[in-house]
Design a protein that fits this description.
Length: 333
């Protein structure tokens, strides 16, 4: 990303003074591309990814002051991931460089653009957190901590991130996106128990219908979300091409998906999380842990913006979330 676009990210921050920290992994995605005869999957492009890193980039592009708390490798791929985050305006104060190798994700694109992932995580830098490496106290301007995905799920570093999450929840909004990867999390029943504990620490939970169906195969997934909404101020379920559903203070607020030609779905859910947070911060900042003051119209507007942002990401190859200017009225017409 060029310096002019990084300057755009720096120049359009919100006016509230509030910032967001995203904690988790940054992964190099190997995305299939066509060979000289047009056969898809014959070649691969290395593109920066990882759910938390994607969310941080999307937040920064939308004008939210955003810190990334990550453990990047000191190898060449780690250099590229670091440069990608920094060039997009993400603040790097809480990024560590460590000798373990970078995490890789082999992306398998389906005919409809949806993505399956084969991840190579054994001994990689993203998942080796210790409690001494994470900040004891977050800067006062950080009003939201966003966590989830593999860094919260995989030992040995998961315990340290969970402790950070628990400490932050006393003073700040904790946003959780589990971004479930069943092939990596092992015993699904045990992960389900862990997730229930994380939900109790969170104030905002964004989860996909696919996540719920993978974990709660024996129950109605939307009933799981409704049960969480009895314990969490705001639960949002993304429903793919059927839009999204928010559960907030006893109300259910639905928004449709934005029709778009789909290049692939890589990073779409991460973009949705980022734009949802941006929409809430913009209308009720600083957010309090109880999310007081959020009326249904604010939630609906934030979800509509999130759906637009996710659609733009789907229309482009790889995790390439929109800039703030792309979401302004009349943009792209």
């Amino acid at each position: 990303m060029g310096r002019s676009e990084a300057a755009q990210a720096e120049g359009c921050h919100n006016d509230s003074g509030a910032s967001v920290m995203v904690c988790g992994e940054a992964v190099m995605d190997l995305v299939p591309g066509p060979d000289s005869q047009g056969r898809n999957g014959a070649t691969y492009r290395a593109l920066p990814g990882g759910s938390p890193a994607n969310t941080a980039v999307a937040l920064a592009r939308l004008g939210v002051p955003t810190y990334f708390c990550g453990r990047l490798s000191s190898d060449a791929l780690g250099d590229r991931l670091y440069s990608h985050l920094e060039a997009n305006g993400v603040r790097m104060r809480f990024v560590l460089r460590r000798p373990e190798p970078s995490t890789l994700a082999m992306v398998d694109l389906q005919r409809d653009g949806s993505a399956n992932y084969s991840l190579y995580v054994q001994g990689t830098s993203d998942f080796q957190w210790t409690s001494q490496e994470l900040p004891n106290d977050l800067p006062a301007e950080i009003s939201v901590l966003h966590v989830g995905s593999l860094a919260l799920a995989l030992a040995p570093g998961s315990a340290a991130i969970e402790a950070l999450m628990a400490a932050a929840a006393k003073k700040r909004v904790v946003s959780l996106d589990p971004n479930v990867r069943p092939a990596l999390i092992g015993d699904l029943s045990r992960f389900r128990a862990n997730l229930e504990r994380w939900v109790d620490m969170a104030h905002l939970v964004k989860v996909s219908l696919d996540d719920l169906e993978a974990l709660y195969w024996d129950q109605d997934p939307l009933q799981i979300a409704r049960r969480w909404a009895d314990r969490v101020p705001l639960v949002v379920v993304t429903l793919g091409d059927k839009g999204a559903l928010a559960l907030h203070l006893g109300q259910e607020i639905g928004v449709p998906a934005n029709p778009t030609p789909v290049a692939d779905t890589v990073g779409a859910g991460d973009t949705f999380s980022a734009a949802l947070i941006e929409g809430l911060v913009a209308h009720a900042s600083p957010l309090s842990p109880g999310l007081e003051g959020l009326g249904p119209e604010v939630v609906a507007q934030a979800m509509e913006g999130a759906a637009r942002a996710a659609a733009i990401t789907c229309s482009r190859p790889g995790a390439d979330p929109p800039w703030r200017a792309e979401l302004l009225p009349g943009a792209g017409r």
